[in-house]
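Weekly modeling sync, notes
Attendees: AB, CL, MP (scribe)

Item 1: holo prediction request
CL wants a bound-state model with spermidine before deciding which constructs to order. AB pointed out that an apo prediction alone won't tell us much about the pocket. Agreed to run with the ligand included and paste results into these notes for async review.

Input as submitted:
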Amino acid sequence: MNLWFTEVQTKNVMLSLATENLLHIEKTDYQELAVIEHKDLGRVLFLDSVIQTSTRDEFVYHEMISHVPMNTHPHPRRVLVVGGGDGGTVREIVKHPTVEKVVLAEIDERVVWAAREYLPEISAALGDPRVEIRIGDGNVLVRENENAFDLIIVDSTDPVGPGEVLFSRDFYGAVSRALKEDGLFVAQTESPFYNEDLIRRVQQDLSAIFPVTRLYLAAIPTYPGGLWSFSLGSKKHDPLDLDERDFRHCATRYYSPAVHLAAFALPPFVRQIIGV
Ligand code: SPD
């Protein structure tokens, strides 16, 4: 099939995937949703032509957005995931036996449907009895809760459209109120090659609210830029204050205790972006 899906990164950079098979495409109430089959990357889910996940490398993103904060908290019981309707982040969280409840706040129920239909290996844990799926605005849900979660993860799309509010200082204030007294927060914050201003601003905003603020990185080939960033804000626990005895070992393919610590070793050009 001679059909290409193209993610436009800048006026001069695009990432195009040749479609082997178009499995699904629709306009939902919020966005255009498509799932394709690709020869090298497996199944790929797009939202508004932005790659969200591919079965080839999704484990890197989902493990790193989940296990780094899960292992930073000594006993994470209640976790909120904002976005992440494909279920990959939830799949990693429920690997931890400490977890009693995971609330998934996804605005677009069609994303959950498409993941269940076409990405079973990513969405499988959505049926776990500890998981509650709330179709609705994660920003609203966060503001309705106080002192409720050990960990809040924002597994969002890019900071445009419905996802934009999830990258604001005001939202981070609400996140802090929704967290317990030793809670922590992680969000995906795009690539340091293309999103310097965003990463700098998020780090500044988080450090105005949380005593511990960190940035960490992972290599995710299907996201433009390849090198991906995650921003962490914590009320008490520092992800760097861990040694191997503290890690709860789960079955992972990218994350490990050594990778956890190494992910916080920032190259000089990234340190420069955030001024450390
Ligand atoms: N530029 C796209 C970043 C997408 C990050 N979230 C993906 C959701 C996967 N669970």
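Recorded for review: The domain at 58-274 is CATH 3.40.50.150 (Rossmann fold).
Action items: CL to compare against the apo run; MP to circulate these notes.
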